[in-house]
Amino acid sequence: MVLHKYGEKLYTGLVATMTAHLKDISKSIEDAQGGLFLEELNRKWNDHNKALQMIRDILMYMDRTFIQSTRKTPVHELGLILWRDNVIYSSKIRTRLLDTLLELVLRERTGEVINRGLMRNIIKMLMDLGSSVYQEEFEQPFLEVSAEFYKGESQKFIECCDCGEYLKKAERRLNEEMERVTHYLDAKSEAKITNVVEKEMIANHMLALVHMENSGLVNMLLDDKYEDLGRMYNLFRRVSNGLSTVRDVMTSHIREIGKQLVTDPERLKDPVEFVQRLLDEKDKYDKIISSAFNNDKTFQNALNSSFEYFINLNARSPEFISLFVDDKLRKGLKGVSEEDVEVILDKVMMLFRYLQEKDVFEKYYKQHLAKRLLSGKTVSDDAERSLIVKLKTECGYQFTSKLEGMFTDMKTSQDTMQGFYASHPELGEGPTLTVQVLTTGSWPTQPSVTCNLPAEMSALCEKFRSYYLGTHTGRRLSWQTNMGTADIKATFGKGQKHELNVSTYQMCVLMLFNNSDRLSYKEIEQATEIPASDLKRCLQSLACVKGKNVLRKEPMSKDIGEDDAFFVNDKFTSKFYKVKIGTVVAQKESEPEKQETRQRVEEDRKPQIEAAVVRIMKSRRVLDHNNIIMEVTKQLQSRFLANPTEIKKRIESLIERDFLERDNVDRKLYRYLA
């Protein structure tokens, strides 16, 4: 027929025949009752496809030549279009098909089992008819109905469930929808339907969920609900601003808790406990971030900035962190493995990084380290050095050079003592002396008043002085009696002997009782010339501490008065031969001491600020006031937060000393004068 130029007739005949046939089919599908409707549609669709293949094969010549030259629709495509227009778009089938499909989805959502295979075939038919058919006849209405469904369901859940349960339900719904797509919808629908669930179940209720009473984010954090937190993270991360909402609430919660921690007067009584609480908080949130929040960097940064915020709310944090280290390195690390020691030191370093006033920490750390070294109380030299290496890595050489100098002095002093005894063999009998010679700049020495040492000791000290100055030229020695210790043998009432480990001051007091039975406070003060505050602490520890009271005092009371009298406690007993009598230490600094340390820190900062100003001006030559303040603060922030008023004062001082000058026109501009 094509060769005889009847191609057109053949083609129009095909269209007419197929259309008439499909109208009949459409009628039989319309007549199908209830559940049989989809089955009938599916069956007729399969038949139509088979018929189409045969027709295409029979009319292959027409398909290849006539249709191509006349640009008509090819046979197979024509079959699909006719099916679409006569069956799917038929007035009685179109809405019924959509309603049936949507009803099946709803039934599946409410827990019924449906024939997924049949669903898949019908949806596949719509997709085969073209993506626009699938979208218009099913996908678009499906998404609208789903949004309505989830809107209602989420409202119902939010009223009756706690946050954890709600998130479980939302997660389950999301997974169901994804599964539905894999079973019988177009893969491209996945993003669209999950979007609907996310919007209706999560995005629209974000704040309500996070702040839900008794079960929201704060409660999850308090109760370490890793699973719920992980679920919240994974669901909220799917919606825009989800994670930032979680992060903001977490941040304000941590800041609130931290603020209570560092400002609660009860907590500040025990510095070691205070720092331990901070470390526990940090561990808690580190664990939450690693196990529930997928180690999210933005959450870690939020945690760090929160810690930095509240640690610096308490001006005593640097001192307390140093006291914590002191406690650990004195006794807290006994019997702890090297790895665990490193873990503890790393945690301390982490807190140290948050401090804005690192130089204050250094001041206290130096004082505490000095006491540890001089009393020989450090648990492990390795741990001490390891921490110094960490500080050096963190803050540079200047920060630790003096600390390293302290270790060097201890080593040199050992050699000096060996030399001293080698050159004085006659000193084998009688009291022995161990001297630590400290370099003035490296140690936190206070200008101390030398007390009157017992005659036996002062002769020995003189010998050492002449030996030392004989071997070293151009040095001066001044005794720091407030930092020393002594071991003395004592015999009590019933001939009971003990060795007492005391401070140098306590030794001076006790030795007086070799020559008198009873001494008043005034007499002791006169004989020893120990400063009053130290003497009172020293007598308190000798007479008022139960089990260590080698002296008795009248009247008996906790505090030392100017009119008290003291005598040896003959009834003193102890089950130990060696008895250590500590000084009643002011563990935390008292108010005046704190002020003094603060002043020393402020004084030390002045030259550092000046040096920074000069460094900056040297390279810039001309700079205005605000930029100098900014640059100086930036340069010094690894050690402390410079106060703008103080920087201004230092600039004034440099102008007076002709390092800088003000511009004649613009008074806020400075020039460097070399």
UniProtKB/TrEMBL annotation:
PROSITE patterns linked: CULLIN_2
Coiled coil: none
PANTHER family listed in its UniProt record: CULLIN
Domain Cullin family profile: 316-543
The family this protein is said to belong to: Belongs to the cullin family.
Protein's organism: Rhodamnia argentea
Gene from which the chain derives: LOC115755380
Protein name: Cullin-3A isoform X2
InterPro entries reported for this sequence: Cullin, Cullin-like_AB, Cullin_homology, Cullin_homology_sf, Cullin_N, Cullin_neddylation_domain, Cullin_repeat-like_dom_sf, WH-like_DNA-bd_sf
One Pfam family in the UniProt entry: Cullin_AB
